[in-house]
Recover the amino acids of this structure.
């Protein structure tokens, strides 16, 4: 869902603000007696070059060198219906419709909603707070950003071919399926939303969400590329103030029909669950006074067609753990840190047994200073290590980011 | 002995102009205080801050109470010297209820301690980055309260770090001659020493030009305002 250049977005922002051209808005723009609200998030990051491609995202941009502009809007069509959308541009590329869905609340007094369209991620915790003012650091958790060497539309014929592509997830191609070089997928994409139907209900300290969508958590789609659907669920508990614990599960067909046909000569039946991605997640957030702690673990398993020997041992697993903390040490200033690791299951090729992609560990330290309530300056430092692969294995990266939101 | 005229220069807010008043300490002692009263008419009420569109939420957010943005503060631009003799402003309360600061507008004297109880079931995090007072009370749960003492006059914008649509104003004065209007816009500033003053009305960041008024000995002076 692309529309022409991003300049129109920025121009529109200036025109739409009722506060006039001289004043940047500090609160959401409200129109039609509050029935329409518009907000924006702008973040500009500049940091070290990243030749090891540790920080590259779905859109082939480094998160350390990124100008991101998001504009969100909500239209309250009545007590039972709202329309919500978000458009985004990165590094002044074309505007992308990131979210566009209808929220239906059948009973206004009950915490029960149905969302239809390009909907927020059901799975995990981080994917719904990727906005720069929700992220105390500049980098993203590896599970949601690091590009593995798997693609849904281009497949390795055997284990050796997969092992040859370790660490090349930012841009690769295999012998089966699409012959165009493109990025691999992360465990869970934080940079695209899936399309489908989502049902959410809450009662007391328990919230549950179930969704059926076209893509999978690592490859959300607007138009489906296979005949399978993903079902995802999340259960969240908030037993006391400040504590949120969630578990998530998702399963859906991962491999595109075009790639499956190239590998097998036929497409598996729609009812089967072949070539699926299955993901499990757990997350905990605890905050109190000036502390905020977050833990998130994601396990993902992909099943690919077995074509030639040495055969790929299905499923291919990846496990990610992330621990993040933030401490506000004075008004408007904080320090933050995140430890991240992503590991991969072993497969056996003709000459060796090794993880199917190169494991990565990242430690990121940073600080943030609020120049104004909605203007934040962040500085961070990353130490990245990769155990194997063809690219650089150790990188120390620095970055600064300016964040504005209204 | 010729009485010594005392020339006072008083800052009420750092953002408003400085004025000088001439008072005789002997006259102040003998005079009976008066009242300034009137009404503030808001031609346009500032709309409440809406929530940011909850695009990334799995469901609709809970409803919240609408801010009361009808109330204004009326205050003397400058005040007699004896107004500054009070050094303990006591306590005031700004509650956090249904994701709203209640009241939305608080006017206090320097030295006042404001309590911020949390009456919601979830965390709030009160903070301000205002020049007059920069503070962060951290996250705390329902039934708990944190306090902060305001020692510098000025305008303090208060926010919640978790709920960006929550905001409030605290106006801190170095003298007691101010009044918050009622829901009809009416105000009374009591115990004003007789004399000539400039009076200002303020609402949601907009201040009127100072209006001159003379408070008679033991009497009442009427003064209305129209803002925006």
């Amino acid at each position: 869902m692309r529309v022409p250049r991003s300049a129109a977005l920025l121009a529109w922002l200036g025109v739409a603000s009722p506060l006039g051209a001289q004043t940047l808005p500090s609160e959401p723009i409200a129109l039609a007696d509050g029935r329409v609200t518009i907000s924006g998030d702008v973040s500009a990051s500049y940091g070290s070059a990243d030749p090891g491609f540790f920080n590259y995202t779905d859109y082939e941009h480094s998160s350390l060198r990124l100008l991101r502009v998001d504009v969100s809007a909500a239209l309250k069509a009545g007590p039972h219906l709202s329309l919500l959308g978000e458009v985004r541009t990165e590094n002044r590329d074309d505007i992308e419709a990131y979210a566009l869905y209808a929220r239906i609340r059948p009973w206004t007094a009950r915490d029960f909603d149905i969302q239809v369209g390009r909907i927020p991620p059901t799975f995990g915790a981080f994917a719904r707070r990727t906005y720069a003012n929700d992220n105390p650091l500049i980098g993203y958790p590896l599970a949601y950003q690091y590009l593995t060497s798997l693609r849904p539309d281009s497949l390795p014929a055997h284990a050796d071919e997969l092992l040859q592509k370790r660490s090349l997830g930012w841009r690769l191609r295999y012998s089966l399926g699409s012959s165009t070089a493109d990025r691999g997928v992360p465990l869970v994409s934080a940079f695209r939303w899936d399309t489908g139907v989502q049902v959410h209900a809450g009662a007391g300290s328990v919230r549950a969400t179930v969704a059926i969508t076209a893509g999978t958590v690592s490859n959300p789609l607007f138009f489906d590329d296979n005949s399978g659907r993903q079902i995802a669920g999340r259960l969240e508990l908030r037993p006391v103030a400040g504590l949120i614990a969630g578990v998530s599960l998702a399963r859906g067909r991962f491999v595109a029909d075009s790639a499956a046909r190239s590998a097998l000569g036929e497409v598996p039946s729609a009812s089967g669950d072949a070539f699926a991605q299955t993901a499990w997640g757990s997350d905990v957030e605890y905050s109190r006074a000036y502390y905020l702690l977050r833990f998130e673990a994601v396990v993902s398993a992909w099943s690919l067609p077995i074509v030639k020997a040495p055969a790929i041992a299905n499923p291919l697993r990846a496990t990610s753990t992330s621990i993040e903390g933030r401490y506000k040490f004075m008004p408007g200033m904080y320090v933050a840190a995140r430890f991240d690791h992503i590991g991969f299951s072993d497969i056996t090729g003709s000459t060796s047994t090794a993880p199917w992609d190169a494991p990565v560990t990242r430690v990121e330290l940073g600080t943030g200073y609020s120049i104004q309530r909605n203007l934040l300056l962040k500085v961070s430092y990353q130490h990245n290590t990769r155990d194997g692969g063809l690219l650089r294995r150790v990188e120390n990266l620095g970055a600064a980011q300016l964040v504005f939101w209204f | 002995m010729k009485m010594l005229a005392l020339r006072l220069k008083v800052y009420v807010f750092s953002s408003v102009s400085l004025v000088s008043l001439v008072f005789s300490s002997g006259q102040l002692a003998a005079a009976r205080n008066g009242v300034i009263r009137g009404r503030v008419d808001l031609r346009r009420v500032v709309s409440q801050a809406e929530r940011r569109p909850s695009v990334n939420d799995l469901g609709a957010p809970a409803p919240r109470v609408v801010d009361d943005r009808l109330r204004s503060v009326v205050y003397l631009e400058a005040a007699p010297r004896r107004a500054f003799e009070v050094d303990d402003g006591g306590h005031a309360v700004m509650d956090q209820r249904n994701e709203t600061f209640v009241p939305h507008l608080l006017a206090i004297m320097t030295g006042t301690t404001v309590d911020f109880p949390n009456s919601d079931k979830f965390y709030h995090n009160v903070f301000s980055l205002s020049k007059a007072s920069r503070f962060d009370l951290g996250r705390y749960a329902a039934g708990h309260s944190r306090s902060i003492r305001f020692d510098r006059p000025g305008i303090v914008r208060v926010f919640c770090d978790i709920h960006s649509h929550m905001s409030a104003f605290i106006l801190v004065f170095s003298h007691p001659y101010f009044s918050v209007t009622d829901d009809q816009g009416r105000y009374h500033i009591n115990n004003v020493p007789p004399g000539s003053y400039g009076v200002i009305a303020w609402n949601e960041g907009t201040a009127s030009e100072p209006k001159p008024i003379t408070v008679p000995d033991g009497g009442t002076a009427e003064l209305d305002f129209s803002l925006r």
